[in-house]
Amino acid sequence: METVDIVVIGAGFSGLYAIHKLHEKYSLVCFESGDGVGGTWYWNRYPGARVDIKSVEYSYGFDNDLQQDWSWPEYFSAQPDLERYANHVADRFKLRDFIRFSNPVSSLHFDEATNLWHVRTGKGDHVMCRYVIAASGALSAPNTPPWPGMDSFKGPIYHTATWPREGVDFSGQRVGFIGTGSTGIQAMPLIAAQADHLYVFQRTAAYCMPSGNRPMDADFENDWKAHYPERRKELLDSYGVSLIEYPLLSAHEATPEQRAEILETAWNSQNAFQLLFAFSDVMTDPSANDYVAEFVRSKIRGIVKDPATAELLCPKSYPIGGKRLCIGNGYFEMFNRDNVTLVDVKSAPIQAFTETGLRTAAGDFELDAIVTATGFDAATGALTRIDIQGVNKLKITEKWSEGATTYLGSMVAGFPNMFMIHGPMTPAAQAQMITAGEWQVDWTVGIIDAMERDGCTRIDTTEAAEQSWAAEVAMCASQTVHNLADSWYNGRISKGKRADLRSMSAASRGSANCAKMR
Ligand code: NAP
User: Fold this and answer.
1) Would you list the DSSP string of 398-417?
2) Full-prediction pTM beyond 0.90?
3) CATH numeric code, 2-141+377-517
4) Mutate to test the pocket of ligand 1, among 276, 318, 374 (most ligand atoms within 8 A of CB)
């Protein structure tokens, strides 16, 4: 049996940075379930996969030579470029030797007598270590609803988060697509352009604003490269996205003419998410929010030619920003194609997969292939799928049976020396995950270094600390419109997850900054 100081779970962006920070001082092994680096950007290789934060920001800031040398071809990078970047970083900083690929962690058991974690893996490795860093991702455990009859469907079923590396050719096929969140909205326009017919099975309509993606502009890139140190600091001092200009004007204070102008400017800003920051109270006041929501509905009605389809695409049951705002490239326009049909599965839910397609309460659809973009068992899923046992053999699944509890999203009482990056009740995808991952790794490394320096062997948090963090997250969340929508943010979409704010992974940028200050 092997013994190392540290086991890192996951070779995504945070895991790679953790290896880089730690491997010179400590013995270390990283277990990765995929056969390559990049995490989210390794797995999510569906057509159209693209980040919606500008790449000059959505990139590492820990090494100035890296950010000076690297060039992004587009403002909002596509998956292949992000994967290429992850591979470049792994090679440039010689991180691969520490990573065991295609080797998922299956169990983590804490031995109280020795204060060591026993880590076992799918390939049969058994490693003992003093510290575990779970960089296993907030959105990495795919969610597929257990529809009856899935085995009987004769054609292929794809989940966007486990897309085939060789791609899929939908030419001449009738494709059914389930899921109209951020992922579906990116993938569908490209599939519609290829398929014979695309049936979009929509349960909840999405707010979506245009991404404004475009080839990288040399002046823009050079300006960032000239100012990286101060801009990275600005990112670290915010929640990781610098380009939002925080407004001072309430939507209620603005005149109708001002509102129209401000919203039109935000829509055309080429800054994803600018709509949510068009006024000071969009994310906190439902009636202010409704001005923005109605503006987006008017855009949808203006873009989509068939009025019945347009109306069905208009989100009305929750505030804009309550769920994550989607960023699209031609999503609403796609519904003007003759080969795209919108199917309402809110009023007539999907009942089953059949041999030849899908059955909804309204009838049968004949399909050659089905794509699911049904999201993730967010925040907790990557951890609860591992057999994790802490002090007194307490299982993490038992500990979290009433909803996830953590201190700062980093530690769980009863699971000593185990640190999470982007864990439940961190900002997760409410922040910019590469930058937020860097500061969470730095914070964790600071704890490990201090323990080593002071000769400490065990660190744990307390249930009281977890409760106070839960109260703070809930307090932040209660002031936002997130509470008025069912989404992965608050765990109200995953079966078996307790539907309360304690499982909320991301309350607001307020909690992001609170976490950072400690
Ligand atoms: P998601 O936002 O959770 O969306 C899942 C979709 O599947 C929703 O439309 C949901 O409908 C639908 N669905 C789930 N179960 C269903 C059922 N039984 N019947 C019919 N429809 C069902 O997942 P996602 O789109 O993969 O996005 C997850 C997160 O990943 C995003 O919020 C974002 O943070 C991140 N992401 C980012 C980017 C980017 O940077 N551009 C791209 C993709 C993803 P309901 O709404 O009714 O539940």
Assistant:
1) HHTTTS---BTTTB-TT-TT
2) yes
3) 3.50.50.60
4) 374
